[in-house]
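**User:** Everyone, produce a chain:

**Assistant:**
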Amino acid sequence: MSIDTVPLIRASQVRPLLAVIDHIGAPRERLLRESKLPLFAYDDAEAVFPELFLWGLADKVVRSEGIEDLGLFAVTHTPVWQSEPEFTARLQSSPTLWIALSTFCRMTSQFSTAVPFEVVRKGDQTLLQCGQHPSTPGKDQAELYDLQIMIQIIQLAAGRDWTPPKVYVSEVNIPRLARRKEFERVRIRPSNSVSCVVFPSDMLAWPMQAQAHPPPCELQLPAPLNAAFLDSLSALIGTYLRYHTMNIQLAAEMAGLSIRTFQRRLRDLQLDYSTLIDHVRLQRALSFLRDPSVLLTDIAYDLGYSDAAHFTRAFQRWTALSPREYRRQTQAG
């Protein structure tokens, strides 16, 4: 993994895996704790986690429960039209599959920064593909997860019984797919660089199928994620602060680095860890204080402080104002 990025994934993308864990009766809390994932926040649309930790969780479930195709099973058990109804509605409002796939590839950065998706035309065949994940525990499950999502996106036009004529995956996943009934007529080919679903190009002109029960129009998609090292790391710290688990060792693990390399990376950016934490806390505090309905005690807890007094002292150190003074000035302005 490049040290210039910290791959992120939205909390909503963890739900299919959690649903499978609950379905098979595996110990959810213990598995989450061992994987350094918070026990809650999976309904928070803006919460983000390290992809590294998510696929580490998948790897633990595979090893403890013996489900070799867990990534595939998770998306089959909780399909994309259930886990992301607003996103699915946006795609189904497209006039053709081609526009829907183009929208899908563009908007996936709102949910994950790990690997990009793209549509590639090759004569009478089209490939919906994504890059393969870094060599970390659970990367094979990440590939199966992505593959099933790509198939389900095409099924929004082709129907839920549609299967691709051909797919490309890494060699470790070929026998896993071959054992699945829905892939018995699919040609499964090896690839060391991308995972992809191959289908006839004339399908690109197919209209999208209308939803029987479209989601409420007030549902909103989250903002696009920033893949830059400092921005992605700051987003992760913002999620983890509220659980009082943030420390330099965890931050380094999020980035896939040793503590020494992590500190050197911060020095290259003219930062140290305590300054980075203060910066994240300040930016989140300023955002919360602009909303007069948010209590100071809630802001303090969200920033990882035990009480409002600790937060007030820190805010005065950053700004020379108390939180109440800043809030009054903001409202007056």
